[in-house]
Amino acid sequence: MTWRKVVEDNHETRNLALVQGYHYFNHRVSVVIQHGPTCGIAALTSLILQREADTDFVNVANELLSVAVSLGISSRGELMSVHYMSQLCGFAGLPHTVVRVGLDSDLGEFLKDSVLLMIYDKDKNNEPTTRYDGEKAHWLMITGFCYRPIRSNKPGVLTSSPLGNNISQPTNSYSKSRGSIPDKGSIPDKTSELHLFVQHGKSRLRQLWRWADILASNAAVRRAKPGTWVLPDNLQEHVGGLAVRVFLKNVEV
């Protein structure tokens, strides 16, 4: 098995149709298919490619794997802590910060110039689950969001959500809102209507998952499956409610 890169020229999604009446914003990021338990490294490799398109991604992925092992934060490519991921981002020169996330997070602010990397527990179809307590832990990359506009007080009528200040879109991004993204007040909080664009190292497809489901799955990561993994003392403290925000352009953090 070898590393593979998938460049998505289309915007295929699964699980939720982008029908009229939805607002969405998403960054286009190529997918690197992981080799072994290297989902986090595959995600970082794809972000390096975002900045340096001509880079030999196989060499990049192998170097990241070697560095992770040498730093003592991985044995076979696994990264079982957002802080381990942060260390590797630092080595790769990717501007980033570790952030707390939840249902009340300002995703419009987080995602306007960045992507979020999170650990969740995956089911057989790679979707979020709470069934395995972390034994199927996997890294995902959140690249955008999709939601229905806020309903007016009149039953059955949808009204346009208020938009925040205009924000120039990063290169290789697209938005239904034509050059501006909604502010926090326009993104429904604590609702099943909010879905996030995600991608990960086991699929070439971009998918849409409920934010509430991702958070529940993230909170369920309490232990790792048996194996020779490098693990922090308290796994949930290094995973739960945490994400690595990686900026797509150079910024001071």
What descriptive keywords fit this protein?
253 residues; eight-stranded antiparallel β-sheet; 5 helices; 10 strands; 21% helix; globular
Can you give a write-up of this model?
It is built from five helices and ten strands; from the N terminus they run βββαααβαβββββαβ. It has 253 residues and is α+β, with helices and mostly antiparallel strands. The longest helix has 14 residues, at 57-70.
Fold blueprint:
Blueprint: E1 4-6, E2 23-27, E3 31-33, H1 39-51, H2 57-70, H3 82-92, E4 96-100, H4 107-111, E5 114-121, E6 137-147, E7 173-175, E8 195-199, E9 207-210, H5 211-219, E10 242-247
Antiparallel strand pairs: 1-3, 2-6, 2-7, 4-10, 5-6, 5-10, 6-8, 8-9
Short description:
The chain has 253 residues and is of the alpha+beta class. It has five helices and ten strands, in the order E-E-E-H-H-H-E-H-E-E-E-E-E-H-E.
Q: Strand portion, in percent?
A: 15-25%
Point out poorly predicted stretches: 7-19, 152-185
Structural class: alpha+beta
Structural shape: globular
Distance between the termini: 37 Å
The total count of strands amounts to: 10
The amount of helix comes to 10-25%
Task: Provide the succession of SSEs.
Answer: EEEHHHEHEEEEEHE
Mean pLDDT: 80
> What about the largest sheet?
8 strands, antiparallel
- Tally of alpha and pi helices: 5
Radius of gyration: 18 Å
